[in-house]
Amino acid sequence: MKQEIPLTEYLKKYFGFDRFKGQQEEVIESVLKGHDTFVLMPTGGGKSLCYQLPALIEEGTAIVISPLIALMKNQVDAIRSVSTDDGIAHFLNSSLNKTAIQQVRDDIVSGKTKLLYVAPESLTKQENIDFFKSIKISFYAIDEAHCISEWGHDFRPEYRRIRPIVNEIGHAPIIALTATATAKVQHDILKNLGMQQANVFKASFNRPNLYYEIRPKLNATTQIIRFIKENDGKSGIIYCLSRKKVEELAEMLQVNGIKALPYHAGMDSATRSANQDKFLMEDVDVIVATIAFGMGIDKPDVRFVIHYDIPKSLEGYYQETGRAGRDGGEGQCITFYSYKDIQKLEKFMHGKPISEQEIGQQLLLDTASYAEAAVCRRVLLLNYFGEHYEAENCGNCDNCLNPKEKVEAMDEVILALNAILGVNEKYKMEHISNILVGNSTAAIKSFRHNELDFFGKGDYHSSRFWNAVFRQTMLKGLINKEIENYGLLKVTPKGHEFLKNPTSFMLVKNHDYDNVDEELSAAPHTASGDLELFKMLKDLRKQVSKKLQLPPFVIFQDPSLEDMSIQYPITIEELHFIQGVGMGKARKYGKEFINLIQKYVEEKDIQRPQDLVVRTVANKSKLKVEIIQSIDRQIPFTDIADSKGLVMNDLLTEVEAIVNSGTKLNIDYYINQVLDEDHQDEVFDYFKEDAESESLEDAIKNLGEDEYSEEEIRLMRIKFMSELGN
Predict the structure, then answer these.
(1) Sequential DSSP letters for 557-602
(2) Does 454 lie in the same domain as 436?
(3) Enclosing domain of residue 82
(4) Model confidence, pTM
(5) 91, 210, 349, 395: which has the fewest Cβ within 10 Å?
């Protein structure tokens, strides 16, 4: 259609804007001229308008293919608000009954409907194909077009069928739109839709108003609750990988007085829609959602996006963080990261076709690289999408605001690469780390790797350090994990070249997120912790421990003291809510600590953040109660673990938490089965006389890993803490 009226007049008439944003006008002109058009525009850039306005101008009905039912409803409501006739826009998907479907068809035939939103599954139904053949289609708009590519972050096989169906229905121009696409994904989209000759429009991926931060996944729930309370009344989205975690986290937020609701594909559609509407209408502040399902909500004033779990790809990360600050205002993007989460995601890929594993592996590697890098997050992110960012310091990400220290590690990288080659590239990262630090594990002895020349050659660093070396050499492309023999380290051609001509290798210091809780337990890890009070609490703990002749860690562990330095509890009841402090421990040791805190608060005239006391969900203690009852009945630990669906390691963690919170347990019946009396006495005396902390690593080192297993030492540590601490 050739429109005589200037586009800006249509823009003003339908949407009330005086001018277009970015490349919108050029895109709309391309569509109106009947050209296939490809639009790559970041979230918040105004993609929807690029097909909504031409649809309102053109004759016929525009078919908008979208993967998200939630987004369809949202956008149909938005279009209906610019017209007096609700028939101007409809959606067609599985949520409609027969009567509603007939109403949609009647409105289309009568010429009322300018935009019809359909899910790809609805497009492929024969009855719909036959109907579409009988109407005038102005053009096809394919939203979230990255779903076409296996390399995209949200691949949908049904998107691959769009082109053949469009061919069957009848020719009309296509506009494909996406907010995230690497060069590889762009190529896939254009090729699959058969629109290599399309007009291509690309906007900058830079969102200068968004602040990017990666945090260690340490007490993440507590950190999230504090963050939300500090940003009271602001809208936010929290993403989790599993539906279970979505439900748990939403419940935790509610218990702590935060207006939050869950949102995931497992909920019935009525509840899901109601929760979405409450978020849009600002009846709730926070939505907790699964990454896999996605939100698809066009809400301009989302002020923070938190990832409880690391996303599976950088495209997914960019898409999800892009839902913050779409109005150009504040947008905080905080992600909690632990390398264990990457390993978990890698395990999910087992059993999938090798080609799919290779793609998934590469996407995860890019994500880990981004999370662990010390350079500007914005530089990395834009580079990933093929865009060059000039400035070295963006001033709006954690790495730019708090630059990370680097250390020269060329010699260590050489040693690490030679160790991989020395075991013929047939072992995993943890095994080779143990060889380098000289840990004679059962596996190392059985393969006689303790006889290798380089066994113990790296004992001047911890195994954690060596894991960081392996990981960062992997990120630099010097080594990789073999896909078929999952996890075995291989030296790449680039790695062999490095060994021939070694060059400087700057390793990021203190940026390894493995075991980060151990690294951070020595001092308050949060900016809001009161360092002066923390030192006073440590001094008091020392005095109490001398008086009672107990090691200090038996009284309260460091994380508990840190939490006290943040929360300022001044009653036994409040102390009960401190991390790692149950009511028993609070009553036994708490009085002197709360007296000190109360005096300190009064002297310093401190406003206590009582609303920041993180409360736990009561029914979550059910497992612990059942474990206590099982131990009282002297059921073997192996049987308890089996009945609760736990591995022994997780059961011991639960029992440790019970004992550390102040509950006394008698586990002699089980210990007597696994350790004789002399060995029990030796470990007990170590914790009583020699141990400087509760560290398991130190205990294994001092007692000898040949003599005791980790499980045996943990059991004795539980017995010790229970008898002397509680």
Answers:
(1) -HHHHHHHHHH---SHHHHTTSTT--HHHHHHHHHHHHHHHHHHHH
(2) yes
(3) 7-202
(4) 0.58
(5) 395
